[in-house]
């Protein structure tokens, strides 16, 4: 039975973008040219519950540490405006989802489909930390519409190919476990489904300055503090050279220093990984 348990004078601004990793099994992860199959009645137009799946072994992508997910993406073939998808991230015990028996739900969110996104890749924010060495399963679930005929969703794919199979599951059509579209009925579907995030270093230790970017310095009006998603900021203070707290406020990654006098200041950034102390200059 399937078991589901819920369970600086610093680095450049481009650091976060450079560290971003896309987990994908698609040869072409950016384009959608076709709409895939789903369980529905093409006479009554009633749509049944469907799940579209992909899996990703972190080791296959060279990820040895924890993986911090920030976004998920999926191809939309066609969708009705009343369709609401549930996006689920699991840790599983097998990359072959037909054989997997343990699904640990790590994170979930919903998305309201928009027909304007037909034949395109859709992106939704989703935050989750995946333990090192894990196999991830990404599920796009489209619910049973009952008697309604305007809640449909069909996955998007392209014909460029894939590195590992995708899966369809729909008990109403007798597909009780994730099964490849080819095994369902010889369908060519190879869903575009991507996971975007960053690898969490195995040890940050005393190297915090390598992960936090403070810029510009000298600063004129705004001092930016760029922190990767796997580091949580718990406090930021800025003192003058006499040790007086300037009282400036850190918000959304920046500090307003426009009202400070010219000179040298001491910035302290407290995080869950330690404390960074750095001199900064106000123009």
Automatic annotation (TrEMBL):
Residue ranges occupied by any Secretion system C-terminal sorting domain in the UniProt entry: 214-281
Keyword Translocase recorded: no
Name of a matching Pfam family: Por_Secre_tail
Superkingdom of this protein's organism: Bacteria
Signal peptide: 1-19
Record-linked InterPro entries: Secre_tail
Keywords per UniProt: Signal
Protein name, entry field: Secretion system C-terminal sorting domain-containing protein
Source species: Planktosalinus lacus
Upper classification of the organism: Bacteria, Pseudomonadati, Bacteroidota, Flavobacteriia, Flavobacteriales
């Amino acid at each position: 039975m399937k078991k589901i348990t819920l369970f600086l004078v610093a680095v450049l601004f481009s650091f976060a973008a450079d560290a971003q990793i896309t987990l994908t099994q698609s040869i072409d992860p950016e384009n959608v040219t076709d709409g895939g199959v789903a369980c529905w009645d093409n006479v009554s137009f009633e749509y049944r519950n469907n799940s579209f799946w992909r899996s990703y072994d972190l080791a296959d992508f060279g990820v040895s540490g924890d993986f911090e997910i920030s976004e998920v993406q999926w191809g939309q073939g066609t969708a009705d405006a009343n369709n609401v998808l549930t996006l689920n991230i699991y840790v599983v015990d097998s990359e072959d989802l037909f054989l997997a028996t343990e699904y640990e739900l790590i994170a979930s969110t919903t998305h309201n489909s928009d027909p304007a996104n037909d034949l395109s890749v859709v992106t939704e924010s989703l935050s989750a930390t995946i333990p090192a060495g894990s196999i991830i399963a990404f599920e796009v679930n489209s619910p049973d519409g009952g008697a309604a005929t305007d809640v449909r969703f069909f996955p998007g794919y392209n014909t460029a190919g894939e590195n590992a199979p995708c899966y369809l599951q729909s008990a109403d059509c007798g597909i009780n476990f994730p099964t490849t579209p080819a095994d369902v009925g010889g369908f060519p579907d190879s869903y575009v489904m991507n996971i975007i995030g960053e690898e969490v270093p195995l040890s940050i230790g005393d190297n915090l300055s390598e992960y936090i970017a403070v810029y510009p310095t000298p600063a004129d009006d705004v001092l930016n503090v760029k922190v990767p998603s796997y580091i949580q900021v718990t406090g930021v203070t800025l003192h003058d050279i006499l040790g007086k707290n300037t009282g400036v406020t850190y918000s959304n990654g920046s500090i307003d220093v426009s009202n400070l006098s010219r000179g040298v200041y001491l910035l302290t950034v407290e995080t869950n990984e330690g404390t960074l102390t750095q001199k900064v200059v106000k123009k």
